[in-house]
Write a structure and sequence with these properties.
Chains A, B: It comes from Oldenlandia corymbosa var. corymbosa. Two copies of one chain form a homodimer. By secondary structure, chain A is mainly alpha-helical. Helices cover 70% and strands 7% of the residues of chain A. Chain A has one domain.
């Protein structure tokens, strides 16, 4: 069975990941701003883009998964399964952050070649809050990277050396 | 030392990853189309967006890395280092694909909330080629996912069982 001291860093990392993913999901869900341009009202919220929806879903999934792993008792036989699951969550978080950074970059700077104007000067509150959400997602992602590396290290180093 | 039969699937996966990443990089680099709108000429190429440039760089890095690992002799002591490097390449590819899918989705469908018009109907050749590049990147990414899983499996299962 895995030694408890070896589990402590992973437990702490899972707690950080849970906090960061929950924060990211709440920030994205509640991000909201309104702009008035030429007598028209423009409302910015997460439902405006599939990329924001994807980010919210992935962070919600990561939150539920982190909570389940923290609350449910796990044994050594599950360690390899959890490592694969952690890797999948890491990839999903990585993907959600990257797609949001790409859209956020267009929102902030626009793209003159495509004729896409920047919108962050019109809805600064929304942009700031989604940026904070992406930072939260990044912290969760980084925690999962360390969880995967720690789990791999534990899984290999708990066994007798090869030579 | 790692048994040769255990190395064959990883060798094949690295070959697939190399081919897919090189193809993706070439397709993105050579993607080009021109549209004429209101007497103005619009030229679509990878330099138009930092996301396309990022995709090209990451696939070039993945290609060089795959080539180096395939050509240079590796031993068991390097297996864990390679596993971490493979994981980093997988995360970079995942990130490059996701950001390009997000931008591609806006290019194809636009975003009425942000006032971003779709551009793929004006530069269809460019959109098709970048889509093909993203599929190439996805194949490379999938290969790296299996490389990481196989390497982890080999690394753990070559050692005596715990119980």
């Amino acid at each position: 069975m895995m030694d408890s001291p070896k589990r402590i860093p992973i437990f702490v990392l899972r707690l950080i990941a849970l906090g960061a993913a929950v924060t990211a999901a709440i920030l994205m869900f509640s991000a909201h701003d309104t702009a008035h341009v030429f007598n028209m009202t423009f409302e910015a919220k997460y439902t405006n883009s599939p990329t924001f929806k994807y980010f919210l879903i992935i962070n919600a999934v990561a939150s539920v998964y982190s909570l389940l792993v923290l609350c449910c008792p796990t044994n050594t036989s599950m360690a390899r399964f959890l490592l694969v699951m952690d890797l999948i969550i890491l990839l999903l978080l990585d993907s959600a952050i990257s797609s949001n950074v790409a859209i956020g970059q267009v929102g902030r700077n626009g793209n003159s070649h495509a004729g896409w104007l920047p919108i962050c000067n019109q809805v600064p509150k929304f942009c700031k809050q989604t940026t904070a959400a992406v930072i939260g997602g990044f912290v969760a992602s980084l925690s999962y990277l360390f969880i995967v590396l720690c789990s791999f290290h534990n899984e290999v180093n708990l066994l007798p050396p090869k030579d």
